[in-house]
Structure formats: C-alpha cells, structure tokens
Amino acid sequence: MPQASTQDITFNGVPAVSLTTPAGAEAIILLHGAHLVSWKPAGGEERIYLSEQAVYDNGAAIRGGVPICFPQFGKTGPLPQHGFVRNMQWSKVLARGGDDFAMAVFRITDTPETRAIWPHPFAAEFSISITGARLDMEFEVENTGDASLSFTAALHTYMRVKEAEEVQLEGLRGQQYRDLLTGTEHTETGTFVSIDRETTRLYRETANPLLLREDRQALGINTENMPDTVVWNPWEQTCAAIGDLPDNAFRRFLCVEAGAITKPVELEASQSWWGRQSLVAM
C-alpha cells in the first residue's frame, strides 16, 4: 500500500513542503507566507490557480494560491494591503502523514519590523491537511502580549477554473453583500452567482456551505469561524493592468475567500482565535 509522504523541496527557487497522501492527493506550501500554491485531489487536476507570472522575490506577495491576509484585509486600515504575513518567512513546525492523510503546520511570530507598523506581540499558525478529495486550511492567531489587539483576516483562495464565465457559485442567495467597487449594499437574489464582469463583493454572515460548479465537476466550500465571503474576479481591463497576471488570467480563476472582515476579531492578552476553510473536490 502506498505511504503518505512529506518532503522539503524547492519550488521556483523558494523553500517549500510537499505533501502526498496514500491515495495520491498532493499539495505544495511555500515557507514564504506559508503560501499554498498547489492542491491536486487524488486522481484529479490542479484545483488552485497560480499565476504563470508570479514573482518569487523575497518580501514580495505571490500572485495566486492562497495568500494569508493578516492583520488587515485589503485596504481597510493603515497597514499595507492585506497586511504583512503573506510576505514573511514562516517556519515549518510539523509535517507528517497517516493512513489516509498528510499535513503540515507553519508558524510565525512578531518581529521588530512588524511591531514598527503594528505594535502587537502575536504568534500565528497555519495548518494544511489533505485527504483523498479534501483540503483543510486552518489559520490561528494568539495574542502573546499584555494588551488587547484587533485584526481582520482572510484566506484569499484562488480557485482554478476552466472558464470563469461558465462557473456557478451556489449558496449565497438571500445574503447581504457590499459591492466593494461601487460601495453600495445589495441582497443576492440569484440562485447562483455568475461572473461576466469585474466583481468584488463582500458577503456577510455566510453560514451556508457553498458549491462552485463548472462543467462536470464541482468544489464544495465550507468555512468555520470565518463569517465573511469575498468573491473576486478582476475581469479583462483590471487583469491587464496587474503586472504579475497574464492578460487572459481572469478566465482561469475565481477567488472565493473566507474571512473575518466586517467585524474585526478582538483578542485579549493570552487569548487565541482560529478560522478554517475546507475544500472538497466532487
């Protein structure tokens, strides 16, 4: 019987960890940003989009995969867009496999550089676990200081698709959302969300599981303790203006991001918080 494996590898010149389950599912996570850049369910195709023009220079954000947004989502505060942990070097603290799974855990703590722009001691861990058809990602933050802190966070997941115009995202009907392009409030009335233009929506309190359908395959999307869902596709004009994306890349992905954004997380000293996004290939 095949065995699970975990290996330290180099991916585009960057230290990384590869995971393989006995059933053949695979994942690759960079130490830079604890950034998941690949996930293939057992017997299936790649389900995560990574830009062919992504930049792997030290300190740069990597386009695609699953960037971790912390301690600020987007431009909702004074920090750099999406915070700073996606641009930092993390440490691998655990990697192991079992009869039907493989997993790895990565950790980061505050530094003099982070405290210069966000004056809070913290520790964060990102855990990745894969089975035959399932990917679980859990982000945990601990307040290691003596005073309270507040943050927003998200897993900025790029779902790989064959044609963005043909996908259907189910499970958001009746949800309130803010169109971040226009600043207007809306209620989702469709049985599914389809993409035919630039889209940046922040759906609030999305408790229902989501289903991303395309052709003859689907992807179940479940979250825990991350009540907001961001749906993003830059479409043609904005995509062409993004230097680390091919001009036609907007057709190849849809970001469905799990987050704690609308209501910032408040942590007292010694408290911790976690949030999870799970993907199930169907």
UniProtKB/TrEMBL annotation:
InterPro entries attached to this UniProt entry: Aldose_1/G6P_1-epimerase, G6P_1-epimerase, Gal_mutarotase_sf_dom, GH-type_carb-bd
The keyword Protease is assigned to this record: no
EC number: 5.1.3.15
Keywords: Isomerase
Reactions it catalyzes: alpha-D-glucose 6-phosphate = beta-D-glucose 6-phosphate
The protein's enzyme class: isomerase
Pfam family, one: Aldose_epim
Family designation: Belongs to the glucose-6-phosphate 1-epimerase family.
The name this protein goes by in its record: Putative glucose-6-phosphate 1-epimerase
Organism: Uliginosibacterium paludis
